[in-house]
Amino acid sequence: AQSVSQHNHHVILSEAASLELGCNYSYGGTVNLFWYVQYPGQHLQLLLKYFSGDPLVKGIKGFEAEFIKSKFSFNLRKPSVQWSDTAEYFCAIDGFNKFYFGSGTKLNVKP
Amino acid sequence: EAGVVQSPRYKIIEKKQPVAFWCNPISGHNTLYWYRQNLGQGPELLIRYENEEAVDDSQLPKDRFSAERLKGVDSTLKIQPAELGDSAVYLCASSLGSRRRHTEAFFGQGTRLTVV
């Protein structure tokens, strides 16, 4: 069965700290990978995506993620977070044009 | 470019009453999704349309939920009758994807349903 696991439900960081959010998935086939972000009061927005090619992908606002096929992982990273990064982050996989989401990680960045 | 538009943003109804949500996808997007997001969880797919055809409705509770996408553009999701457990945010998304082509999904702001 297809599934996405996000291990950190709530992360609290100070500004300028580094961020890494874990995402592992289970899917029996070729998969496309995404990170979506939901800022307070706003809709889900795409942060970055991986379809093929270089497993290190860069997204908006300084975020990047690395696809490690052998570990079924797609962790999100940012070297230095800002207060404006406070949001909820969702990892998602696309199998056969059907998106599966993780349960989300709430990031709270303290100024 | 306008995004995915949903209405209403909020809805409070009594249990056993009917409710309907409306979605207008991004122009030209052939695929439309309805998701339900419970508190503290990620979105879960209810139904997916490619044009007018519902290609995946395996997660839709068909005894009380129904959906339609007339002319392959706007879509309506209905619950009748609503139950307390239906309280959630209902998200609509659209994409240019298909079973042969993959792209990202674009989401609306959702309708927050509270059943009392």
Explain what you see.
The complex is a heterodimer of chains A (111) and B (116). Chain A is mainly β. Chain A contains no helices and twelve strands. In chain A, the strands form three sheets. In chain A, strands 2, 5, 6, 10, 11 and 12 form a six-stranded mixed β-sheet that branches. In chain A, strands 3-9-8-7 form a four-stranded antiparallel β-sheet, with no helix packed on it. In chain A, strands 1-4 form a two-stranded antiparallel sheet. Chain B is mainly β and 116 residues long. Chain B has no helices and eleven strands. In chain B, the strands form two sheets. In chain B, strands 2, 4, 5, 6, 9, 10 and 11 form a seven-stranded mixed β-sheet that branches. A four-stranded antiparallel β-sheet of chain B has the order 1-3-8-7, with no helix packed on it. Chain B starts with a strand and ends with a strand.
Topology diagram in text:
The complex is a heterodimer of chains A (111) and B (116).
Chain A (H helix, E strand, L loop, with lengths): L2 E3 L4 E5 L4 E3 L2 E3 L5 E7 L6 E6 L5 E3 L5 E5 L4 E6 L8 E8 L4 E3 L3 E6 L1
Parallel strand pairs in A: 2-12
Antiparallel strand pairs in A: 1-4, 3-9, 5-6, 5-10, 7-8, 8-9, 10-11, 10-12
Chain B lengths: L4 E3 L2 E4 L5 E6 L6 E7 L6 E7 L2 E4 L8 E4 L6 E5 L8 E8 L10 E2 L3 E5 L1
Parallel strand pairs in B: 2-11
Antiparallel strand pairs in B: 1-3, 3-8, 4-5, 4-9, 5-6, 7-8, 9-10, 9-11
